[in-house]
Write a structure and sequence with these properties.
Blueprint (H helix, E strand, L loop, with lengths): L36 H17 L23 E3 H5 L2 H8 L3 H10 L1 E2 L7 E3 H13 L2
Antiparallel strand pairs: 1-3, 2-3
Length: 135
């Protein structure tokens, strides 16, 4: 719950990429800057993959957090917007109405006193699995 995990199946919400494969004993970023060609190619590949699974979006709609790793490589959270743009894909993959997936997402939103709302990706995906198993 406190360390990000890799989800790539369409039935799950996806979190931030990790430069360290979410290894809690070796946290860290890639140390590649925005002028590094290898880094730019990696980000482009992530954008292309995200677009492939989200054809209803435009490139400009993809938040940077879904195609760039966090400084620690362990971030388990995404913004509310990053989760909302995935609802359609998850709903279609699970054969659930959009509004049901949206309600499950709503139940998992953390609203801090200061800052923006965010979602723990693992908790959200567990809530989705629990809903499906109770049907």
């Amino acid at each position: 719950k406190n360390v990000g995990q890799h989800f790539s199946q369409n039935q799950y919400f996806w979190g931030r990429p990790s430069a360290v494969d979410y290894n809690g004993s070796g946290s860290g970023g890639s140390n590649k800057g925005p002028s590094n060609k290898a880094y730019l190619n990696e980000v482009e590949e992530r954008i292309d993959a995200f677009m492939h699974s989200h054809p209803y979006l435009k490139r400009k709609d993809i938040p940077a957090e879904l195609v760039t790793a966090s400084g620690s490589g362990l971030d388990p959270h995404i913004s509310l917007y990053a989760a909302e743009i995935q609802i359609k894909r998850v709903a279609e993959a699970r054969k659930l109405p959009f509004n049901i997936v949206s309600k499950i997402l709503e139940s998992q939103i953390h609203r801090p006193f200061f800052g923006h709302p965010y979602v723990n990706v693992l908790c959200l995906d567990v809530a989705m699995d629990n809903y499906v198993s109770q049907r």
